[in-house]
Design a protein that fits this description.
Layout lengths: L2 E10 L2 E9 H5 L2 E2 L17 H13 L8 E5 L4 E9 L2 E8 L4 E5 L1 H13 L7 E7 L4 H14 L5 H15 L1 H8 L1 H8 L1 H9 L9 E2 L12 E2 H14 L7 H18 L1 H5 L9 H21 L4 H19 L17 H4 L3 H16 L2
Parallel strand pairs: 3-7, 4-8, 9-10
Antiparallel strand pairs: 1-2, 1-6, 2-8, 4-7, 5-6
Helix pairs in contact: 2-3, 5-6, 5-7, 6-7, 7-9, 8-10, 9-12, 10-13, 12-13, 12-15, 13-15
Length: 366
């Protein structure tokens, strides 16, 4: 039985697009997906991800649950159109009749399947009004071309800006709910944005002016790291030391003392951070990963000051030098090939964690 509904017909260049709303159940009962398969390379859709479907189901059932952007689909069959009213030079109000089982989703398959999962749990979602933009493209190739344009050329939200979005969400819905929605690392990274801002601005911070924020589209000469990786690296600290989350001013002071102690130990690297990795992702992540152990050692001596941290760090680097058979000095962090140690030049998280583990084991050695 065909689906009949009002729509707005919009003509863009030589292509007609019909924008309408469909009941979720009507779409779910009448659509297909043309997946790419080894034995059928004419398809173009990527495989569905169960994790993405679960996220969308949760979003519909527990969160805002709106889809303001339309699902794109093609009508493979004859679309019947009856014009009702002209709306302008390239648009008109009309009534369309879609043949049964003729819809092929070009973009929005996870939204549709997430909606199916929500409908299975709560029947009211059968009537969920979904915005749909319909094409009447003549060939599968044309569908593939539309899919490619939408998915390969669209710009995603920059990660630093997305982190700022999460920071705003924290004030509205709280850390536990953001953790449920976005995961531990992303939630903690957003939580410490105030710490990153202070490290960037305060005169006593060795990070002053060196952090690229979300509203700076291009790196300035003084920037050595973006907001997102620095904030994300701090999550390793609060994950192990959750009590520090209660006092972000204290955490900021600890990190300033920590990095000022490191600046005393590696003055050349801090004076020319562009050519060394200690304030880049490699150094930042590895040294924040080991911070909880440094802090614990300082607690044992009762000296959690810059000088107290410096003593522990110097001992750790001396022991690591022995274990790696290479001196942990400024040159260790150099980006110049053949000068710096390969561990300090690595960018993969596996190698960064390996470097942190070397530091950690050196602390354990008595």
């Amino acid at each position: 039985m065909p689906l009949n509904m009002p729509a707005i017909k919009i003509r863009q260049k030589d292509i007609d697009i019909y924008v309408t709303t469909m009941r979720a159940e009507d779409l779910l009962n009448n659509y297909s997906i043309d997946w790419w398969k080894r034995d059928d390379p004419t398809g173009y859709q990527r495989p569905l991800k169960d994790s993405r479907i679960r996220e969308i189901k949760h979003y519909l059932l527990k969160e805002i649950g709106t889809f303001p952007t339309s699902v794109l689909a093609n009508v493979r069959g004859e679309l019947q159109v009856r014009t009702m009213k002209g709306l302008g030079e390239n648009s008109e109000l009309c009534e369309i009749s879609i043949p049964e089982k003729s819809l092929w989703v070009i973009d929005g398959q996870h939204r549709v399947e997430g909606l199916r999962a929500a409908t299975d749990e709560e029947k009211k979602f059968r009537d969920y009004p979904l915005i749909v933009s319909l094409f009447t493209l003549p060939d599968i190739y044309d569908e593939m071309q539309q899919f490619h344009i939408v998915n390969s050329r669209a710009k995603s939200v920059p990660t630093d800006l997305a982190q700022q979005h999460l920071f705003q969400m924290l004030s509205k819905i709280g850390l536990p709910e953001v953790m449920v929605r976005e995961g531990e690392r992303d939630a903690y990274g957003a939580y410490v944005i105030p710490v990153v801002n202070k490290l960037l601005k305060e005169n006593s911070s060795p990070w002053k002016g060196k952090i690229q924020l979300a509203d700076e589209p291009r790196k300035k000469p003084q920037h050595v790291i973006k907001q997102r990786p620095l904030a994300d690296s701090i999550h390793f600290i609060i994950k192990e030391r959750p009590a520090l989350m209660k006092d972000l001013d204290k955490l900021t002071k600890l990190l300033k003392d920590y990095w000022n102690a490191l600046a005393d130990i590696f003055p050349t690297a801090f004076a020319d951070p562009k050519n060394y990795t200690i304030q880049a992702t490699t150094g930042t992540y590895s040294l924040h990963m080991v911070f909880p152990e440094i802090y614990a050692e300082c607690e044992k001596t009762g000296d959690i000051s810059k000088e107290g941290m410096k003593k522990v760090l110097e001992r750790m680097f001396d022991k690591t030098s022995e274990r790696l058979n290479t001196e942990i000095n400024d040159a260790f962090w150099s980006k110049e090939i053949g000068v710096g140690n390969f561990l300090a030049q690595a960018t993969s998280m596996k190698m960064i964690k390996a470097l942190a583990q070397y530091f950690r084991e050196a602390l354990w050695e008595k």
